[in-house]
Specification:
TMC, 70% helix, 2% strand, mainly alpha, globular, transmembrane, 3-stranded antiparallel sheet
């Protein structure tokens, strides 16, 4: 190790960044430009060099940079000197450059004012800032995520309404001199085209309307809410022909692609933060001690909670270090014991999941068989009507019970698996995500097994069970509608009949058991899984119920205020909160998993299951996807050959290879960037331990 003499150590420059090649290049460009005013104004000290660097570098073409002084990382005194020098430099540039600089400043000012005005129009801006100030950025990230889902569902609703619902309504009522065309199904058995919706006729009780509103049957079944309403094949707007089946399918692909791109766009920033924040234990400790405080907190109770949160995180780090040492010191006998115990617990988890899935399957089969029997019968008594409504809601009830009971069992079993605290949370959350989203898949599988079951030749001629499901797409849409409504009812009932009574008991009752239970915590992860479950239902159900995104928008709009009231008045923040930087990325990853799982049932419904021959825009096609090749057949011959070439293996294989090469390139680029980050961290560590690390070598 080489030590510099004291006189050379004192003569070392204060700012070692001035020795970088980029800084020297900037000095050479500034010298070549002949900026006499800058040479005269800038002092030779460290502050003067930084101000000259901010003022002096010229853009390509000899044009001076027009950035305002407030955008530079300088002190107030340096910014004032920089502003004076910039104003003095104006007299040395041409009139065209002066006008261009003035126009650029005016345009930036206008854009900033417009951006500031639009920020005031942002949904729930004040409410979210208030929540952030009282409870920190972790809980604020949940409400921001909820706002994102409201906007996403609203845009999906606008998309489906504009391209599917509105043309159907306009053509059916002859608005704007429009008309519609219905093409009778060809080469299809007559019994397959019979569809008699269970619309209410004659005198109807008020209870029947309420039952229809909750179950999606009756008068709602024949409205534009469900798939069966869209039975036209083409809409004529003056002389323009609008292909509704193709528009229906393309709108479905469009809202799925829009959701995918928007989620990826929002998750990129969180992924970058997680990549950069992949820190060692010492850096994690320093960040918690010196940069762990949330300066948005203004509420004393929230500040005390943040103190406990930091203390918990430090204890967790120490516990993880203790577990790492314990794992390193394990004998072979202890390893066999813990691995055997984990295998046994995972067998129990699989058994719990199997029980949930089987219960949902049996409840769905029972509900479909018995509710279809009662359709069309006149309901005269409230007891029979209530029993019928209960049968229709049986799958939703069983799914809700499974979503409540299974996570409690997982949280209990994870304690015996001897994982680290952080891994315990992640594993439990992933199990809860799986059980919630898989329950929807089991429900759809149960429905499809009933829809595809054919025991007679007449049924096989249709391709699906036409007796029980003459319009099976509307039946699936009704199930998704009931899941959406029941999920909202459960959230509202939990706040009104659980949280508020518990708050009153804790406030006014001094009994030790009541005070020991205390207020229920506002678990961010549980609430996020709750709304992601509802969003997955919306993605799947929009194809079968085009106006379901409007219901989801209204639902999440009310959930925002329900959760806000619950957080402020009836619950307390969780003692183990998660950071906003990691929580936002986790929310979007789970949401992306829900979207990817939604692709599977939609793809099967569109490409595999025969479409209903008695209703819907695809009744003249074997499957919904068949409208695409049928439309291509109407194109010119040259365009058909191009499209068939794109869909052939001769194009697909090279395209796949090019995509793989591009993907490997970006993976290698990401690895190189990660290595650069690691090298910079090592250099920072060297700077911390050796103050002479970055001094010039003499």
């Amino acid at each position: 190790e080489v030590f510099l003499p004291e006189e050379l150590r004192a003569a070392a420059p204060v700012d070692f960044l001035q020795e970088l090649p980029s800084y020297q290049s900037a000095l050479r460009r500034r010298a070549a430009a002949g900026g006499t005013q800058e040479r005269r104004a800038a002092p030779r000290g460290s502050a003067g060099l930084r101000a000259a660097e901010a003022r002096g570098p010229e853009q390509e073409g000899g044009e001076l940079a027009a950035r305002p002084a407030r955008e530079y990382p300088l002190t107030i005194a340096e910014k004032r000197r920089l502003r004076d020098c910039q104003q003095a430099d104006i007299k040395y540039i041409s009139g065209w450059k002066q006008w261009k600089r003035t126009s650029s400043k005016s345009l930036k000012k206008v854009l900033n004012e417009v951006r500031e005005l639009l920020s005031y129009l942002e949904l729930w801006r004040h409410d979210i800032h208030s929540i952030e100030g009282k409870f920190g950025t972790g809980i604020q990230s949940y409400f921001s995520f909820l706002r994102f889902l409201v906007l996403l569902n609203f845009i999906i609703f606008i998309l489906m309404f504009s391209f599917v619902t509105l043309p159907s309504i306009i053509s059916k009522y002859g608005i704007f001199n429009s008309s519609f065309a219905k093409i009778p199904p060809k080469n299809i058995e007559a019994h397959c085209t019979v569809y008699k919706p269970s619309g209410n006729m004659g005198l109807v009780y008020f209870y029947t309307y309420l039952k229809d509103l909750l179950s999606g049957t009756g008068f709602l079944e024949v409205t534009s809410l469900f798939y069966g309403y869209y039975t036209i094949d083409a809409a004529w707007l003056s002389i323009l022909r609008y292909n509704l089946p193709l528009a229906y399918l393309l709108a479905t692909f469009a809202y799925l692609a829009l959701s995918l791109l928007w989620i990826i766009k929002r998750s990129v920033e969180g992924f970058k933060q997680n990549l950069v924040h992949d820190e060692d234990q010492f850096q994690s400790y320093c960040n918690k001690v010196f940069a762990g405080w949330d300066f948005c907190i203004t509420d004393p109770n929230a500040a005390q909670l943040k103190h406990r949160s930091l203390q918990y995180e430090l204890q967790t780090d120490l516990e993880e270090e203790r577990l790492k040492r314990k794992i390193a010191d394990r004998t072979m006998k202890e390893k066999l014991r813990i691995y055997s115990l984990r295998i046994f617990i995972n067998i129990i988890v699989i058994a719990v999941l199997s029980g949930c899935f089987y219960s949902i399957y049996r409840a769905t089969v029972f509900s479909q068989e018995n509710s279809n029997v009662s359709i069309g019968h006149d309901i005269r008594t409230d007891s029979i009507g209530a029993a019928n409504l209960l049968v229709q809601y049986l799958p939703s009830i069983v799914i809700t019970l499974a979503n409540f009971i299974a996570p409690q069992i997982f949280s209990f079993l994870i304690k015996f698996e001897d994982y680290s605290p952080a891994f315990e949370i992640r594993l439990t959350l992933m199990r809860c995500v799986f059980v919630r989203l898989a329950n929807i898949g089991v429900l759809l599988f149960s429905l499809w097994s009933q829809i595809s079951y054919c025991a007679t030749d007449q049924c096989k001629a249709c391709g699906y069970n036409y007796e029980l499901y003459p319009c099976w797409e509307s039946e699936v849409g009704q199930e998704m509608y009931k899941l959406m409504i029941f999920d909202f009812i459960i959230i509202l009932a939990g706040t009104l009949f659980v949280d508020f009574p518990r708050k009153l008991l804790v406030t006014h009752c001094s009994c030790k058991p009541v005070q020991w239970c205390g207020l229920q915590e506002f678990g961010i992860s549980d609430n996020v899984l709750e709304i992601i479950y509802g969003q997955t239902i919306c993605w799947i159900g929009t194809f079968f119920s085009p106006l379901l995104p409007a219901i989801a928008t209204i639902k999440y709009f009310f959930i925002f205020y329900i959760k806000k009231i619950s957080l402020i008045h009836t619950r307390k923040p969780a003692a183990r909160p998660i950071r906003a930087s990691s929580s936002n990325f986790f929310f979007l990853v789970v949401l992306l998993i829900g979207l990817v799982l939604a692709f599977i049932p939609l793809g099967i419904s569109i490409a595999h299951i025969p479409s209903s021959k008695a209703c819907g825009p695809f009744r003249n096609f074997n499957t919904s996807w068949a409208v695409v090749p049928d439309t291509i057949l109407g194109f010119p011959t040259g365009l058909q050959q191009v499209l068939h070439g794109i869909a052939s293996e001769a194009f697909a294989v090279p395209f796949f290879m090019v995509i793989c090469l591009i993907m490997f390139y970006f993976i290698a680029l990401a690895g190189a960037h990660k290595r650069v980050v690691e090298q910079l961290r090592e250099q920072l560590i060297m700077v911390r331990f050796d103050p002479l690390f970055c001094t010039p070598k003499v």
